[in-house]
Design a protein that fits this description.
The protein contains 13 helices and 14 strands. By secondary structure, the protein is of the alpha/beta class. The chain folds into 2 domains: 171 residues, Rossmann fold (3-Layer(aba) Sandwich); 120 residues, 3-Layer(aba) Sandwich (Rossmann fold), CATH 3.40.50. The strands form 3 sheets. The protein has a 7-stranded mixed β-sheet with strand order 3-2-4-5-7-6-12, sandwiched between helices. A 5-stranded mixed β-sheet has the order 9-11-10-13-14, with helices on both faces. β6, α8 and β7 form a beta-alpha-beta unit. The longest helix has 15 residues.
């Protein structure tokens, strides 16, 4: 993991989207007056004729993207997660998922790491909302490499996708030639003392915890679940059988998020205890992203404590 080199997944998205536009002329991009923040402005500068700023009209944007997808275009629709999954939920459900149209919803500024924007903009429920929709693929990437892969890979599958992206800069975890597959989690390490399932911005925190625990003689594995729906059932069951403790961590509510998705697999296939780390049925608050991660326990230190290690070693 490259601690010194950090990049926000929204930036990776914008850069890769512009690159993808050169390869595939069917790619069109929609935004809702936030192209500077979502980084779709990079695409807009290169392909102004294929970029549509719909203004502050997210519901209209989803409906328009649904319509243009029926003509063979592949619309990438971007705005903050709060607006993509919250304000436009009706249109995502009925205009995109119900007819199973080929629309890629790439939502930035998810979770509490939106920071100072506060509770109204910190979307903590979107994974649950989107994974509950039939026909929807739900993804949440953890670093620059994985995001660039996902942006291109989702263009190859037919149907709705919700790609969750972050504002906070995070370390680069994977090498450029890393192989990924939609629906297949990535196992990092072979420790048997515990498994930490993580997604998105907190995967790097789980890896930090792994490295610190190894110095204490505690060996864990980290599982990066970049695809939350369809979830990798085989990996979850494998880790449940092979490790002594299971923990999930996510920058999302513990209700109906990653932890819930894992628990649904366990209760049917291999019942055992799962400790869920996330936002505990409350709204976020305004503050610096790093301070909020610490306040809500979304840190390597909290993972270490949950596993029984020592924080100061």
């Amino acid at each position: 993991m490259e601690e010194n080199k950090k990049i926000a997944t929204r930036q990776s998205y914008g850069e890769k989207l512009a690159e993808l536009g050169e390869k595939n002329e069917n790619i069109v991009v929609f935004d809702a007056d936030l192209s500077g923040a979502t980084k779709t402005s990079i695409f807009a500068k290169k392909f102004p004729e294929r970029f549509f700023d719909m203004g502050i009209a997210e519901q209209d944007m989803m409906g328009t993207a649904a319509g243009i997808s029926t003509f063979g275009k592949i619309p990438y629709v971007s705005t903050f997660a709060m607006f993509a999954s919250g304000r436009a939920y009706d249109q995502v459900r009925n205009s995109i998922c119900y007819p199973k149209l080929n629309v890629k919803i790439c939502a930035t500024h998810s979770g509490i790491t939106v920071g100072e924007d506060g509770a109204t903009h910190q979307m903590l429920e979107d994974i649950g909302m989107m994974r509950g929709l039939p026909n929807m693929t739900v993804m949440c990437t953890s670093d620059d490499t994985q995001t660039r892969w996902a942006v291109e890979e989702i263009s190859k599958i037919n149907g709705p996708v919700y790609l969750r992206l972050c504002r906070l800069e995070t370390p680069i975890i994977y090498k450029e030639n890393e192989k990924f597959e939609i629906g297949k989690a990535i196992q990092i390490g072979d420790g048997t003392d515990a498994t930490v399932f993580a997604t998105g911005v907190v995967v790097s925190e789980a890896i930090k915890a792994k490295e610190k625990l190894e110095k204490q003689g505690i060996h864990i594995r980290v599982v990066d679940i970049h695809t939350i729906k369809p979830i990798d059932k085989e990996m979850i069951i494998k880790c449940a059988k092979e490790t002594k403790q299971l923990i999930s961590i996510e920058d999302h509510s513990i209700i109906n998020g990653l932890g819930t998705a894992i628990a649904e697999v366990l209760i049917q296939e291999y019942p055992c205890k799962l400790t869920r780390i996330g936002i505990k049925d409350e709204f976020g608050r305004s503050g610096k992203a790093t301070e909020l991660l610490k306040h809500y326990g979304l840190t390597a230190e909290n993972i270490i404590l949950q596993i029984g290690g020592k924080v100061n070693e």
